[in-house]
Specification:
The chain is α+β, with helices and mostly antiparallel strands. It has a single domain, classed as Jelly Rolls. A seven-stranded mixed beta sheet has the order 1-5-12-7-10-4-3. Strand 8 and strand 9 form a beta hairpin. The two termini are 35 Å apart. Bound molecules: 2-oxoglutaric acid (AKG). 2-oxoglutaric acid binds next to strand 5, strand 11 and strand 12.
C-alpha cells in the first residue's frame, strides 16, 4: 500500500503569520494568546460556535491577504501511458511530464494505480485524528523537526523509503528521462530517500480573505504527492498570478520541490504554493514529500551543467531542510540563498553545518 508505511505527521495549519494589523468586525472576539494558539485553529473553531470574525493573531496585513485567484487548469497526466509496451505512448507521457515540470512545476495524475478506496480511507483517518480530544493529539506535540511523528502548527518530519507512486514517476524514470538523464538517475541520487507526510486540517474560517491556511512556500524535496478531500484551496504561483488548482476526483497533485530544481540546474521549477481557506467547509490535505537521504549533497546533476555554469552551490540536504523549515524564511528564499549569482548568501552563514 502506498501510504500505509508512511509515518504520519499530523499538522494543524492556519495562518503562520501572527501579524496584528487588522480591523475586527462588530462581534468583538477575545484576543487569542500565544498559549491558546498552540491549541490550534480547530480547537478555536470547535469552541466558538458563532465565530464571525478572525482573531487578530491570525489576520494578515492587507498586502499579504489572498486576492481572487486566476482560473487556469494545470495539466492532468494519465500515468497509464508509462506502463505497458507501447513505446510511443510512453515517450508521449514523458514529454507531457517534462512540459508540465518546465511550465508549471505542478501537474495532476490519474490512473496512478492507487486504489480510490485507500485514498478515501487516508483522508478519513486524518479527519478522525483531528477529531480526537486535544490531550490525545498533544501526545504527539513536538517542536523537534527530526521527531518521527509530530503534531502542531506547520511541521514536517523525515522518514525513509520512497513509495510506489513516487517510484512510478521518479524511479519509473519519467522525470530523469524528460531531463535527458539515464532512467534511474534521480532514483539513484535519492539513495534510501527521505519521506515527509504532512496532514493538514483547515477548518472553516469566518473571514477567509484576511488570512491563509498555509503561507506561500516551495517544498524542499524532490517530488510532493498531494491528495485532498473534495474542497478546493491549493493555489500555485504561475508567473505573477496565483492560480487555483481545482480538485479533480481520484487524482493526486504532484509538484516538484527545490531538490529537483537544483538537480535540474534550474530547468525545472519548484513552484511556490499556498493554501486558502473558506467559510463553509473543512479542507483536509495530505502532502507526501520525497527527498534524498538527509546526508546527501544537493547539487546540479553534472550532465546538466553546460560550460561549467552550475546555478546552485552544493549543500547537504539536512542543512537545506533546516533553513527551509525555519519559520522566518518563507517563499523561495532558501533556494535563492544557494543561487550562485544570487544577491543574498547571508542565510548560508546562519546554517549550522552538521558535517
Ligand atoms: O493543503 C495544501 O493543498 C498544501 C499543503 C502544503 O503545501 C504543505 O503541506 O506543505
Amino acid at each position: 500500500m502506498l501510504f500505509a508505511q508512511s509515518l504520519c505527521v499530523p499538522v494543524l495549519v492556519m495562518a503562520s503569520s501572527a501579524t496584528t494589523k487588522a480591523i475586527l468586525s462588530e462581534k468583538k472576539f477575545e484576543p487569542v494568546s500565544q498559549n491558546e494558539r498552540t491549541k490550534g485553529v480547530k480547537y478555536l473553531v470547535d469552541g466558538t460556535p458563532n465565530l464571525v470574525s478572525l482573531p487578530l493573531l491570525y489576520a494578515l496585513p492587507s498586502p499579504k491577504c489572498p486576492k481572487p485567484a486566476t482560473d487556469a487548469s494545470i495539466p492532468v497526466i494519465d500515468l497509464s501511458g508509462l506502463n505497458g509496451s507501447d513505446d510511443q505512448k510512453r515517450s508521449l507521457t514523458i514529454k507531457e511530464i517534462g512540459s508540465a515540470c518546465e511550465e508549471w512545476g505542478f501537474f495532476q495524475v490519474k490512473n496512478h494505480g492507487v486504489k480510490i478506496s485507500l485514498m478515501e480511507e487516508m483522508v478519513k483517518a486524518v479527519e478522525e485524528f483531528f477529531n480526537l480530544p486535544l490531550e490525545e493529539k498533544n501526545k504527539y506535540a513536538s517542536n523537534d523537526v527530526m521527531d518521527p511523528v509530530r503534531y502542531g502548527t506547520g511541521l514536517n518530519t523525515p522518514a525513509k523509503h520512497t513509495p510506489a507512486c513516487c517510484k512510478e514517476i521518479l524511479g519509473g524514470g519519467a522525470i530523469s528521462e524528460s531531463l535527458g538523464l539515464s532512467k534511474d538517475y534521480i532514483e539513484r541520487s535519492l539513495g534510501q530517500g527521505c519521506q515527509i507526510v504532512a496532514n493538514n486540517y483547515y477548518p472553516p474560517c469566518p473571514e477567509p480573505d484576511r488570512t491563509l491556511g498555509i503561507s506561500p512556500h516551495s517544498d524542499h524535496g524532490g517530488l510532493t504527492i498531494l491528495m485532498q478531500n473534495d474542497v478546493d484551496g491549493l493555489q500555485i504561483k504561475h508567473g505573477e498570478d496565483w492560480v487555483a488548482v481545482r480538485y479533480v476526483p481520484s487524482t493526486f497533485v504532484v509538484n516538484l520541490g527545490d531538490y529537483l530544481e537544483i538537480l535540474s540546474n534550474g530547468k525545472y521549477k519548484s513552484v511556490e504554493h499556498r493554501g486558502v481557506v473558506n467559510k463553509e467547509k473543512t479542507r483536509i490535505s495530505i502532502a507526501v514529500g520525497h527527498g534524498p537521504e538527509l546526508t546527501a549533497t544537493v547539487a546540479p546533476a553534472p550532465p546538466l551543467i553546460s560550460d561549467n555554469r552550475a546555478q546552485f552551490k552544493p549543500i547537504m540536504y539536512k542543512d537545506y531542510m533546516k533553513i527551509q523549515q525555519s519559520s522566518v524564511v518563507r517563499g523561495k528564499t532558501p533556494l535563492e540563498a544557494i543561487l550562485i549569482n544570487g544577491d543574498d548568501i547571508s542565510l548560508l552563514s546562519k546554517i549550522s553545518c552538521s558535517r
